[in-house]
Structures are given as C-alpha cells and as structure tokens.
From TrEMBL:
This is Uncharacterized protein. It comes from Streptomyces telluris. Residues 1-27 are annotated as: Disordered. It comes from the Bacteria. Residues 12-27 have a biased composition (Low complexity).
Amino acid sequence: MSERTAATENPAGRGARAAARRMAGTHGAQLEARVEAALHAQGAGAGARAGQYLDADPVALGSLIVSVASLAWTVYQDLRTRTPSPSRPVIARRVRIELPADGRTTPEERDRIIDIVVEEVIRDAEDGEQG
C-alpha cells in the first residue's frame, strides 16, 4: 500500500481534509496545505503521536487536525466493537480526554476543532459503510 493510501485514504485522512476545508475560512486557505503536509508526514513514518502538534512548526494547526482525526477514527473503531453506531458526542468527549491540550488554542477553539473533525471523520466512516 502506498504512503498516501495508507495514511490518507481512510476516514481519518478524508475527515481531516474535510475539516480543513470547513475551517479554511477562519484559519486561512493555507490550512488545507498544512493538513496535507501533516498527513504526508504521518504516512512517511513521522507518526501521529499525541502531542506532535506541540512542536513549533508551521503546520501546527494542520498537525492538530490530523491528530484529532486519527484519534477520532481509533475511538470510533474501538466503540464500534461495543455498539453499532457510536454517538458523536461520546467520541468527541473521548478525544477531548485523551488528546493533550496544545496551549496554542483556547479551550473553546480546541473544542470547536474537535467537534468539526469528529463530525467529518464519522460522516466519512458512515458514508463508507453505506456505499
């Protein structure tokens, strides 16, 4: 499987891209490129370790989005072993608990980013199940 396929052609990658498109109006058009860079770094073996977006680099927000998307997808898959359709609020709450705060975003902005990314990841996962 190619790096792009492995790292980006799943609900986490597609959800991260969709979230970046939604947030580009607030955070600038470069956000989509930052998310792509973070997805590529993840696929190249840099990993999506919790907290990697803390590094002072130009793709910090993109890395945060990818970290949230990866964790949301993992949480979704875990919860699916117990219930066929995990709720978005439950997934978002788990992401908030498990992902460390970055210190660069306000709690309100962090929550908004998590909500948007979780929504997009779950939408993609559910669309994939129906299609």
